[in-house]
């Protein structure tokens, strides 16, 4: 989002890192580590708020400041690995591993035609680079995992920055925001409860949803193999509803190997068909068939995804 000057070092760029638990290294003691990184690199470094196990670390600045910040982060992780090995019986040293969060629209350029670009980055830097197949929940971003020695990681980040500058994101990006670990849900006595610690907390929204679903066959309560609704008319009229979903969001509806769409089918009791991608179209047609309650429940669950 800046102008390239001679030498290309005056470009302002933002790189997002996803950290799980490790963020405490930057926060403690009293945020001194991150303060030192900001001062020495000249980059703006922000850490997302919240009680989630995952945090987003946003690093913004000229490319040379970003490389300096990444160098300090990689070396800090290397120190932590060395420290953890001193009293350990582990003999082989694990690589430093970082997870970048990259708009899905830029991942194609990062992979390259037939995987050519990612192969070139791996071979020239010695780092391992993996681009996740699925988008991160409720976002249009994907995780890019890089691992290797601190030096390999710096070289790898440099090449990734070049690709990101040459291929800006297309369209609007919905950024990934970590959510607190979701509490398990149980249904008992027609009520929905979320489990928090050793207590079951009533959840009115989920209760309404559950009751709506239970009123209309062919919804099967979880754990039951056949619907059992004595006294209910099994000939509830079925209808169809069509909606369109942008191509770049279809992945989070389908899930890995169809896991999410199957879950939505099972919970809603509706039949859901996703049309194949048509050339030149940025959207996919989705057809939901079932009773009005099945359809509205399926729509709710798709929107929630």
UniProtKB/TrEMBL annotation:
<feature type="domain" description="K Homology">
    <location>
        <begin position="94"/>
        <end position="165"/>
    </location>
</feature>
<dbReference type="GO" id="GO:0005737">
    <property type="term" value="C:cytoplasm"/>
</dbReference>
<dbReference type="Pfam" id="PF00013">
    <property type="entry name" value="KH_1"/>
</dbReference>
<dbReference type="InterPro" id="IPR004087">
    <property type="entry name" value="KH_dom"/>
</dbReference>
<protein>
    <submittedName>
        <fullName>PCBP3 protein</fullName>
    </submittedName>
</protein>
<feature type="domain" description="K Homology">
    <location>
        <begin position="11"/>
        <end position="78"/>
    </location>
</feature>
<dbReference type="GO" id="GO:0003677">
    <property type="term" value="F:DNA binding"/>
</dbReference>
<keyword id="KW-0677">Repeat</keyword>
<keyword id="KW-0238">DNA-binding</keyword>
<dbReference type="InterPro" id="IPR036612">
    <property type="entry name" value="KH_dom_type_1_sf"/>
</dbReference>
<keyword id="KW-0694">RNA-binding</keyword>
<dbReference type="InterPro" id="IPR004088">
    <property type="entry name" value="KH_dom_type_1"/>
</dbReference>
<keyword id="KW-0963">Cytoplasm</keyword>
<dbReference type="GO" id="GO:0003723">
    <property type="term" value="F:RNA binding"/>
</dbReference>
<feature type="domain" description="K Homology">
    <location>
        <begin position="237"/>
        <end position="305"/>
    </location>
</feature>
């Amino acid at each position: 989002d800046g102008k390239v000057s001679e030498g290309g070092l005056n470009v302002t760029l933002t790189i997002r890192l996803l950290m799980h638990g490790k963020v405490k290294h930057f926060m403690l003691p009293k945020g001194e580590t991150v303060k030192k990184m900001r001062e020495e690199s000249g980059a703006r470094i922000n850490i997302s708020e919240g009680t989630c196990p995952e945090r987003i670390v946003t690093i913004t600045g000229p490319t040379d400041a970003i490389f300096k910040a990444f160098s300090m982060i990689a070396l800090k992780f290397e120190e932590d690995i060395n420290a953890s090995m001193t009293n350990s019986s582990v003999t082989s040293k694990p690589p430093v591993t970082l997870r970048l969060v990259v708009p899905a629209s830029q991942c194609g350029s990062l992979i390259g035609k037939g995987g050519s670009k990612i192969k070139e980055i791996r071979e020239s830097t010695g780092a391992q680079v993996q681009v996740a197949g699925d988008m991160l929940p409720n976002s249009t971003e994907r995780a890019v995992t890089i691992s290797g020695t601190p030096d390999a990681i710096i070289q790898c980040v440099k090449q990734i920055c070049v690709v990101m500058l040459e291929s800006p994101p297309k369209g609007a990006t919905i950024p990934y925001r970590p959510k607190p670990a979701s509490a398990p849900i149980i249904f008992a006595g027609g009520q929905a409860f979320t489990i928090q610690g050793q207590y079951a907390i009533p959840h009115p929204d989920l209760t309404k949803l559950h009751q709506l679903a239970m009123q209309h066959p062919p919804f099967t309560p979880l754990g039951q193999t056949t619907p059992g609704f004595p006294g209910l008319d099994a000939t509830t009229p079925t209808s169809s509803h069509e909606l369109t979903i942008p191509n770049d969001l279809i992945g989070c509806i389908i899930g890995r190997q169809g896991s999410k769409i199957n879950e939505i089918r099972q919970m809603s009791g509706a039949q859901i068909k996703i049309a194949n991608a048509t050339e030149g179209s940025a959207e996919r047609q989705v057809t939901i068939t079932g009773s009005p309650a099945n359809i509205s429940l399926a729509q709710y669950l798709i929107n929630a995804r």
